[in-house]
Protein: TetR/AcrR family transcriptional regulator
Organism: Kitasatospora camelliae
Amino acid sequence: MDDGARRPAPLRRDAQRNREALIAAAAELFAEHGLDTPLDVIARTAGVGNATLYRHFPTREDLVGEVFAAAGQVLVEAGQEALAESEADAWAAIERYFRRIFELVESNRGFNDLVTMAIPTVPALAEMSRRNAETVGVLVERAQEQGAMRRDVGAMDLLFMLGPLCRAVPAASDLRPGLWRRYLALLLDGFRTAATHPLPEPPVGDDRLDDLFAGLWEAT
């Protein structure tokens, strides 16, 4: 069978318009209200029926994956920039990387949900989470090697602390846009070498990252 025979048939123009309208409506509503926006509201905003929505996107995860297909690339580029900068100043790279993520989270509640919950049924989003954790791991190691970060912490400690703060960004922004910057700075300061003091418990293993964010999502 040749490649042409394996490709799905192109959508009719009206079907393509409906699909694009659904993606646009979902992108707008997810950004404003988060990923738990009712699907019937998305269909109504797009001007189509529920049956049309489910024909294009059988599950919520299918729609989320399509709407945020480019989100992973944004984080990849931010991570690449941070890793390049970290060779000279890993601490500055960590600060810049997380500021970039929090800026995106503040502007889009759907993106907030993406980076603070595990969605293993959407491969692209699961990969985004994995790459973020990998990037943070390298940044932490380099900051420790450069003497800027305390050596009794790991990437999971940082992610564990940042997850709840990230979830709080919409509420903080309702009080004052950019308020999260204060609390991000306070949190990161606790990881500096100068703040070192004995810790009472060992860290959570990196393999529990998805469990952490799944539990955080259930608790909110």
About this structure: The domain at 3-67 is CATH 1.10.10.60 (Arc Repressor Mutant, subunit A).
